[in-house]
Structures are given as C-alpha cells and as structure tokens.
C-alpha cells in the first residue's frame, strides 16, 4: 500500500539530515586534488542506506547518493561497495550501479580519467545526484576538459541545492564562464 516507500522516503530524509545538512557546514571540493566532506566519519551512512534499500529495493537515488558520498567524499570505498552490492542484488539490471563500482575501482587505482569515463553517462540521467555531478565536474576541470566541466556546472546551477549551486557558480567564475 505504499507504506514501505513512504518509510524509505522518510529514512532517506533522515540520511540527508545525518550526512548532508547544509546547516552542518559540510562542503565538498575543499582540497586541491580531492573532494571530501568537511568533517565526521559518518559510521551510520552505509547501514542507513541499506535499511532504505531493504524498505524499497528500487530507491536507486538513495543507493547512488550514499555510494558516492562514501567512496568519493569519505574515502570509504569498501562501505560504498557494500551498499552497491546490496542494491545490485535487488536490481541486477541497473547499469548505473556497475558504473559506480567501476569508478570506485579506477579511483583506487588512481585513474581519474577512467573514473570520469564511467560516471559521465550517469550524470546525464535527470535523477543523478547533484553531488555526483559536482564530483564529475570537478574531475573534468582537473583533467582540463573545460567545456564539459562548464556544462556540468551549469546543470548544477539548475538544481535546488543551494550549497552546490554556490560551488558551481564559484567554479564557473574560475573557468571564466557565465553561470
């Protein structure tokens, strides 16, 4: 009757409050060569995401958001992979989960160009988490792919997430592009 989806939605809101509340002062892309959350280890992030997937196995945004945060912001790739394995077991045809797994593997190997190659198609999905778009835009910028970085940052400017809009505006200024 939709109660599991409603419970998953409520739990996802709680996950967002736990990890990404703008008021908590978390900011991404704060280091020269990396993108980290500004604080905390968030030991409950993976278990919360898995609980959401147990309630609603097709809540792919929750899996993607948690996996990206764990792998790319918190440097917890094993936890990210656990979330993705859990999600893939319930939705084995979801190619985006495989793209995340590949990107995590290439990140571990230090191959940022391959990370970009795996995640760029995911950023074209309207349901792609803004955080992931920001990560890929940052990689594009660092790899010298100015036009693609600008495209992604402009896309981020259209989001409802004020924190990421501010980061995108700053990045566009650094790239000499208008928002």
Brief overview:
It contains nine helices and no strands. By secondary structure, the chain is mostly helical.
Determine Rg (CA atoms, Å).
16 Å
Strand proportion: under 5%
Low-pLDDT windows of residues: 22-39
Query: What is the helical fraction, as a range of percent?
Result: 55-70%
> Helix count?
9
- How far apart the termini lie comes to 43 Å
Record field, number of beta strands: 0
What overall geometry do the principal axes of the alpha carbons give?
globular
Q: By helix and strand content, what is the structural category?
A: mainly alpha
Helix/strand order = HHHHHHHHH
Mean pLDDT equals 87
Largest sheet: none
Could you characterize what this model shows?
By secondary structure, the chain is mostly helical. It has helices at residues 3-20, 45-55, 60-73, 77-90, 95-108, 112-123, 130-143, 146-157, 162-174. Helix 2 (45-55) runs antiparallel to helix 3 (60-73). The longest helix has 18 residues, at 3-20. The chain is globular, with a radius of gyration of 16 Å. Residues 22-39 have low confidence and may be disordered.
């Amino acid at each position: 009757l939709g109660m599991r989806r409603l419970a998953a939605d409520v739990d996802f809101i709680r996950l967002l409050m736990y990890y990404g509340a703008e008021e908590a002062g978390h900011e991404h892309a704060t280091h020269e060569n990396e993108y980290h959350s500004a604080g905390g280890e968030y030991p409950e992030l993976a278990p919360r995401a898995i609980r959401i997937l147990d309630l609603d196995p097709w809540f792919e945004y929750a899996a993607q958001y948690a996996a990206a945060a764990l792998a790319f912001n918190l440097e917890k790739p094993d936890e990210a992979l656990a979330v993705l394995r859990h999600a893939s077991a319930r939705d084995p045809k979801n190619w985006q989960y495989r793209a995340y797994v590949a990107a995590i593997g290439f990140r571990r190997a230090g191959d940022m160009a391959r990370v970009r190659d795996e995640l760029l198609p995911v950023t074209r999905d309207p349901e792609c988490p803004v955080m992931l778009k920001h990560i890929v835009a940052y990689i594009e910028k660092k790899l010298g792919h100015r036009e693609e970085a600008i495209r992604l940052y402009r896309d981020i400017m259209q989001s409802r997430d004020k924190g990421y809009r501010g980061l995108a505006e700053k990045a566009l200024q650094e790239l000499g592009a208008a928002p």
